[in-house]
Amino acid sequence: MTGLWKVGIKMAGNIDQSLQELMNVDGAIGCCIADYTSGMTLGATGSTVDLELAAAGITQVVKAKMRTMKELGISGEIDDILITLQDQFHVIRPTAKHKGLFIYLVLDKTRANLALARRKVSNVEAGIEI
């Protein structure tokens, strides 16, 4: 039991640190790390978006894209999925290292640098330890 507790603390600390790094991106409104098999968030931060509800919905987007790629015979991993709204960018990155998880970053379109944000999400993904 003690070993599981220590692993849980390490995971939570790493996820919190990863979320804080994402919130340092210019224009960041909110972000979370979620499990796309269940739609549940492992951690979330931000204020203007209901990230638990958003993660549950984005789960369907990720699953649909993966199904479509399989049906089309497209191999390889998804780097990221971009949803562009009138005032926001939503960057979704399924993690290659931890199958079943994705990073979700919501950006204010007027303050964000999309290229740098995508790069930061990629860097954060590489550093997640679970």
- What is the count of helical runs? 3
Question: In terms of structural class, how would the helical and strand content be classed?
Answer: alpha+beta
In CATH terms, the superfamily is Dynein light chain 2a, cytoplasmic
N-end to C-end Cα span: 17 Å
In the CATH hierarchy, the architecture is 2-Layer Sandwich
Large-scale geometry:
globular
Residue fraction in strands: 25-35%
Q: What's the total count of β strands? A: 5
Radius of gyration: 15 Å
SSE blueprint:
Elements: H1 2-23, E1 28-35, E2 41-46, H2 51-72, E3 81-84, E4 88-94, E5 101-108, H3 114-127
Antiparallel strand pairs: 1-2, 1-5, 3-4, 4-5
Short key terms for the protein model shown above:
about 130 residues, Beta-Lactamase, five-stranded antiparallel β-sheet, 5 strands, about 45% helix, about 25% strand, disordered N terminus
Can you walk me through this structure?
The chain is an alpha+beta fold and 130 residues long. The protein has 3 helices and 5 strands. It has one domain (2-127): Beta-Lactamase (2-Layer Sandwich), CATH 3.30.450. The protein has helices at 2-23, 51-72, 114-127; strands at residues 28-35, 41-46, 81-84, 88-94, 101-108. The chain has a 5-stranded antiparallel β-sheet, with helices on both faces. A hairpin with a 6-residue loop joins strand 4 and strand 5 (101-108). The longest helix has 22 residues, at 2-23. The radius of gyration is 15 Å and the shape is globular. The two termini are 17 Å apart. Residues 1-10 have low confidence and may be disordered. It comes from Arenicella chitinivorans. This is Roadblock/LC7 domain-containing protein.
